[in-house]
Amino acid sequence: MKISKIKLLIPVLSLTLILLTGCNPLEEKTKKPVIYLYPTSQQTVSVKLDYKGVLTCTYPEYKDEWKVKAQPDGTLTNLADNREYSYLYWEGISDNNKWNMSKGFVVKGTETEKFLQEKLEYLGLTPKEYNEFIVYWLPIMKDNKYNLITFAGEDYENIARLNITPKPDSILRIMMLFKPLDNPVKLAEQELKPFVRKGFTVVEWGGTKVN
Hints:
Blueprint: E1 6-9, E2 28-38, E3 43-51, E4 54-59, E5 66-70, E6 76-78, E7 83-85, E8 89-94, E9 103-108, H1 112-123, H2 127-141, E10 146-151, H3 154-157, E11 160-165, E12 170-181, E13 188-189, E14 201-209
Parallel strand pairs: 1-2, 9-13, 12-14
Antiparallel strand pairs: 1-8, 2-14, 3-5, 3-11, 4-8, 5-6, 6-7, 9-10, 10-12
Helix pairs in contact: 1-2
């Protein structure tokens, strides 16, 4: 079975990675991944992305790694250009995606805002983080009759691994998968687990529209 190419936008971590794409309508697009870094004190951090695909855009520019000076409030100074950034962003295309959407949630488009507020807060995003997520995704999802929504796990890790030095004490990676529906379908509800922040924390969020 041939798998369509997929464009990925990577989620939010203490360092913010964003994946934006959009060309072939048959491609799955993973958008707005962002990575935040929250060390307990000012720290120089290296972030490497092991991505099974081709990077099409990065900001700041990615050259084998990002090396930044990170502050506890999430502010980043990229050592390559000495400029300040709020997060790390990247975009890419991969044909390795095999998403598991056997469990999830079927949500009316008109109820998307409330659903995302509740679930993202439960998963562990701060108001600042989940509001940035919602501002991006709500316009894309709210006018669909229904959305089948799943939060990816190992299937996301398998195509976009992060190698961070020094090693974080806690990492939250949220990759939302959604498929627009004209009619609701029966689906086993996905069990979600809340995230506990401790020590040096990395938070990432993003999303993919699945065809």
